[in-house]
């Protein structure tokens, strides 16, 4: 589904990603783990098309099609979804209007019918209940006055509504308590299917207790230096990343 070939990204004169190769088949959840500064967030921003994160070499293919020349909104319409470490707030913009506008923009781009207000309100309320966001919270402007955990719940609400083809979760577990981690696992597991893929970027095993990965990759020195099964996460928590320092050099 997602194939990254020889991806090289340079920022501020420093090579952050250095010939990275990664494949995530449809229907699978892959996790990326690695030390600080390894390039994990750079990888997520590059796939999503964030400005100033254009590769100097390599390619990113989604279902066999290169997305490098696509803008972020075009990639989103193709089904790429990025969950941020620190979701932004937009004061003065109504939450439901903002999300419905974004959702219908993607539907138009794919040639699908727009969702009516009544249709949207029904599914919005269902998913809001699942992620634990109260009606009072949803009356606020988008993410305005939300705690860090509430912003992450809002992102899981958006992911459930948008039903993207490929989901990138960049340290979604940061700052979450046990209940919120369980909620994230419930949303991801409800979306798992043969035509959808996930890339979960995390520092810790705890999220992977709820989001069961098919494969775990170690990112160090700007490239994947080791891959393994779900048991690799616990090995990394016990032994750290020191063992991979020579491979990353």
TrEMBL record:
It comes from Parvularcula mediterranea. This is Fe-S cluster assembly ATPase SufC. The gene is sufC. Keywords: ATP-binding, Nucleotide-binding. Belongs to the ABC transporter superfamily. Ycf16 family. InterPro entries: AAA+_ATPase (IPR003593), ABC_transporter-like_ATP-bd (IPR003439), ABC_transporter-like_CS (IPR017871), FeS-cluster_ATPase_SufC (IPR010230), P-loop_NTPase (IPR027417). Residues 2-246 form the ABC transporter domain. PROSITE patterns: ABC_TRANSPORTER_1, ABC_TRANSPORTER_2. One of its GO terms (molecular function) is ATP hydrolysis activity.
């Amino acid at each position: 589904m997602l194939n990254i070939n020889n991806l090289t990204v340079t920022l501020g004169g420093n090579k952050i990603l250095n010939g990275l190769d990664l494949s995530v088949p449809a229907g699978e959840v892959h996790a990326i783990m690695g030390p600080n500064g390894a390039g994990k967030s750079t990888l997520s921003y590059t796939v999503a098309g964030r400005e100033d994160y254009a590769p100097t070499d390599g390619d990113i293919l989604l279902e066999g099609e290169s997305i490098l020349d696509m803008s972020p909104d075009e990639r989103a319409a193709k089904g790429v979804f990025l969950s941020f470490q620190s979701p932004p707030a937009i004061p003065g913009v109504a939450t439901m209007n903002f999300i419905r506008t974004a959702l219908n923009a993607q539907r138009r781009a794919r040639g699908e019918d727009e969702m009516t207000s009544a249709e949207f309100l029904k599914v919005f309320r269902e998913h809001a209940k699942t992620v634990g966001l109260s009606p009072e919270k949803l009356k606020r402007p988008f993410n305005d006055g939300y705690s860090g955990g509430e912003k992450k719940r809002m992102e899981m609400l958006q992911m459930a509504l948008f039903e993207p083809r490929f989901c990138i979760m960049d340290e979604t577990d940061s700052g979450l308590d046990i209940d919120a981690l369980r909620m994230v696992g419930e949303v991801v597991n409800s979306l798992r299917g043969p035509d959808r893929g996930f890339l979960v970027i995390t520092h810790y095993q705890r999220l992977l207790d709820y989001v069961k990965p098919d494969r775990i990759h170690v990112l160090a020195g700007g490239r994947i230096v080791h891959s393994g099964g779900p048991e690799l996460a616990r090995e990394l928590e016990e032994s750290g990343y020191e063992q991979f320092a020579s491979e990353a050099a």
